[in-house]
Design goal:
The structure is a single chain. By secondary structure, this protein is of the alpha+beta class. The longest helix is centred in the N-terminal third of the chain and has 10 residues.
Length: 124
């Protein structure tokens, strides 16, 4: 297994594939980063579960208004480019941190593309 790429690199790769979201899953002692592209789950990276903490802390530090990261806490954050540049064509990313649990998602990043029409449910 290899090290996970930096969070921003994965966001840029997902945007290049026009993914709607990126998920970090912990399953069978592995950390998997999966992009959802037109309804298909595409494996972007995989490593040992122990690297999830570092990856999640990196993701949290890139979010607008990030304060202190607590592993396993549920938080809803936003990325607008305030702390880190967004990929071309991305207007915002909603970043949801979830409690760590085997077989579950620990991170969901929903990408909004420029020109997308908001339904209003996200507050955007």
């Amino acid at each position: 297994m290899t090290a996970l790429p930096a969070f921003l690199d994965l966001v840029h790769n997902a945007a290049a594939a026009h993914a709607s979201e990126v998920n970090l899953r912990i399953e069978d002692g592995r950390t998997q980063v999966v992009a959802m592209v037109r309804g298909d789950a595409i494996l972007m990276a995989e490593t040992g579960a122990e690297q999830a903490q570092t990856f999640l802390a990196d993701a949290f530090s890139r979010c607008d208004g990030a304060d202190s990261f607590t592993l396993g806490s549920a938080r809803m954050m936003r990325m607008t480019g305030e702390r880190a540049p967004l990929p071309d064509g991305i207007s915002t990313a909603l970043v949801q941190f979830l409690p760590l649990r085997e077989g579950g998602r620990a991170l969901v990043v929903r990408l909004s593309y420029e020109g997308d029409v908001c339904c209003g449910t996200c507050g955007g």
